[in-house]
What we know:
Distance between the termini: 72 Å
Number of helices: 3
Amino acid sequence: MRAPVYIARTCIALACGLVLGACSHSGSTKPAAASGAASSGAERANRLISGLCPAVDATHRATEEDTSGDGVPDVRRVFLIVGTGDTATQTLVCREVDLNGDGRPDVVRHYDDEGRVRMEEADRNFDGKMDDFSYFAKGRVVREELDTNHDGRIDTKYYFDNGERTRAELDTLGRSTADDWRPNVWEYYAGGRLLRVGTDLDGDGKVDRWDRDAPYQAELAAARAKAEKDEAAEEGESSSSAGGAGESDASASNQTGD
């Protein structure tokens, strides 16, 4: 059975978490120049290349931060400004992070109106192209789409429930397009463990062969049998207790003549 490889993605996630978490506590922050604003060549060279977050305009402002201490900004936040004057408010709508110092964003997070992440893009191999896309609902990931072979097309989709991976769809034949998703492998998970894999062998979009994790199936069957046995034992004890109580009441009634 194919074992999923998560090492690269996990490393990116850990690095992103460290950088994004540190952004609020360290480094120097400065406003980013608005689009079209005059700036020297050196300033432009030091500024994090943008384009994935909204551009700075009348309703958006941006800040840049150097979290690595090398004098070059590596985090850029974009805020939406609502209102004017003293009543104006601003909400974080997007954040770009350059993890490897090449001036290009490697992780971009987009936020909803309540400040919760709604979508995240990541460049896992630092080639300047986003290849990992995570989608969120109420701040929790519900789907992740990946381009694992870096050909510019999504070939793997993971689905989550309450933050736990439950299934995956894979196009290992490279047949999918942006408008037509055609997986040929389906994976199902339980308790963080790969449970079974279905494969479409003839290209009709239906599973022709199932591969199951036999040891895990045996563990599940044993666990279910134990739970049923324990439940039956508890019901037996309850019945015995109820019967004993009835006999005691009858005996007491006979003694009192009632």
